[in-house]
């Protein structure tokens, strides 16, 4: 939980109040976050000129959420335009910009052969897909000098991304600020932090979906360790923002613990397909612990508000306002409706695993980097943002 961060993250790193943005992981599903932020940008554009400034000083991301915060950090100096640019970037994405299947062309017309070859590739290399296209895409659209410019210029205070070490089992948060060398990192059971420049390699490590994307080596504690998706073992997604001194946090997740859109279907008479089991496993990897963390922070806030001010000031706690937004509709069901837009080879591979229909569609949702699905996610995120317009503007200290 974030309880320890609420205690130990009390020393302000700057005189100004810091607003944090926390973006959770979920592969292609995280386009939803860009939709929410595009809606927020539209709201801010109608406010006072001061609202043209980039609204977040601490950016924390996990998995594909790490890619989103890094993109925003590289354009934060442009103000709220960065939020809209993130949505435009997602609009241009295709699966071919993220991954490729390492199977011979002659096998791609066969569902079963493609699935078998994919399984063999995963067994041989530890990953089913080649993610060099994503490396190229990130180098093309994320300006590392732009991140440094935003940090040095004071637009941002800290960028942080999380990854999970296959080597040690520790969950690491890699933080980049204008004063990395002067900042003491935190060390908690199972969780560590390091202050260093965030690179494309950190982003690839954070977003390396287990079994699907390859592990990435990073240098930590004087040695090389191999890292995978930061969503694994992530028990306290808000903790980095609290440790980094955020006074308020907007958190956007893409998890749906009850798998809402498919629970109304009759239970299948047959056992689950391999794709259905894999989708359930992916949902477990990306199990959204966000709501539990939000509730813990709210309980601390409530307890502090009930104490006399002179007593509360003596306690090693601080009040952090948290607003969380998650999809109002089932992303599994949305993926099932758009699975036909996957490239033929990917569609055959997933079809061979039974991952295109019913509960198996959850697996496809993480890989569906195609315009139809992305557009639907962006639209859903924007609708959900407008449904929470009054809360969002109040959170940012603006009148509705």
Explain what you see:
This protein has 400 residues and is of the alpha/beta class. The chain has 17 helices and 12 strands. Strands 1, 2, 5, 6, 7, 8, 9, 10, 11 and 12 form a 10-stranded mixed β-sheet that branches. A hairpin with a 5-residue loop joins strand 5 and strand 6 (171-177). Helix 2 packs across helix 16, helix 3 (64-75) packs across helix 4 and helix 13 (331-338) packs antiparallel against helix 16.
Task: List its traits.
single chain; 400 residues; alpha/beta; 10-stranded mixed sheet; two-stranded antiparallel sheet; 17 helices; 12 strands; 42% helix; globular
What's the tally of helices?
17
Low-confidence stretches: 5-12, 259-264
Helix content: 40-55%
Query: Overall pLDDT, averaged?
Result: 82
Chain oligomer state: single chain
Total strand segments: 12
Dominant shape: globular
Could you give the distance between the termini? 33 Å
CA radius of gyration is 21 Å
Following the backbone from N to C, one meets helices and strands in this order, namely: HEHEHHEHEHHEEEEHEEHEHHHEHHHHH
Structural class: alpha/beta
Report the biggest beta sheet as strand number plus sense, adding barrel if it closes.
10 strands, mixed
DSSP strand (E) fraction?
5-15%
């Amino acid at each position: 939980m974030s309880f320890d961060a609420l205690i130990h993250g009390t020393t302000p790193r700057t005189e100004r109040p810091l607003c944090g943005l926390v973006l959770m992981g979920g592969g292609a599903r995280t386009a939803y976050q860009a939709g929410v932020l595009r809606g927020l940008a539209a709201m801010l554009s109608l406010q006072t000129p001061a609202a043209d400034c980039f609204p977040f000083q601490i950016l924390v991301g996990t998995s594909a959420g790490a890619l989103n915060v890094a993109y925003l950090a590289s354009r934060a100096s442009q103000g709220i335009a960065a939020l809209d640019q993130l949505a435009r970037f997602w609009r241009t994405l295709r699966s071919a910009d993220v991954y490729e299947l390492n199977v011979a062309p002659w096998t791609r017309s066969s569902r079963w052969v493609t699935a078998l070859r994919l399984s063999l590739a995963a067994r041989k290399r530890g990953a089913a897909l080649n993610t060099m296209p994503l490396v190229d895409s990130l180098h093309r659209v994320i300006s590392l000098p732009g991140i440094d410019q935003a940090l040095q210029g004071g637009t941002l205070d800290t960028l942080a991304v999380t990854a999970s070490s296959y080597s040690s089992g520790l969950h690491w948060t890699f933080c980049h600020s204008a004063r990395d060398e002067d900042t003491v990192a935190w060390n908690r059971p199972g969780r560590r932090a390091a202050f260093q420049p965030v690179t494309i390699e950190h982003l690839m490590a954070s977003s390396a979906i287990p079994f699907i994307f390859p592990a990435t080596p990073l240098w930590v504690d004087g040695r090389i360790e191999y890292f995978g998706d930061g969503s694994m073992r992530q028990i306290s997604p808000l903790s980095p923002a609290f440790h980094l001194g955020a006074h308020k946090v907007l958190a956007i997740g893409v998890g749906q613990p009850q798998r809402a859109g498919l629970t109304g279907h009759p239970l299948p008479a047959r056992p689950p397909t391999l794709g259905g089991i894999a989708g359930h496993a992916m949902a477990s990897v990306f199990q959204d612990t966000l709501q539990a963390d939000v509730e813990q922070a709210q309980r601390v806030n409530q307890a502090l508000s009930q104490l006399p001010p002179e007593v509360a000031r003596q306690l090693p706690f601080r009040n952090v306002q948290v607003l969380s937004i998650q999809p109002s509709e089932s992303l599994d069901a949305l993926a099932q409706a758009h699975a036909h837009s996957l490239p033929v080879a990917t569609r055959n591979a997933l079809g061979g695993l039974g991952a295109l229909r019913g509960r198996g569609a959850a697996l496809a949702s993480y890989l569906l980097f195609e315009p139809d699905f992305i557009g639907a996610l962006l639209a859903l995120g924007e609708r959900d943002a407008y449904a929470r317009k009054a809360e969002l503007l109040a959170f940012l200290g603006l009148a509705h």
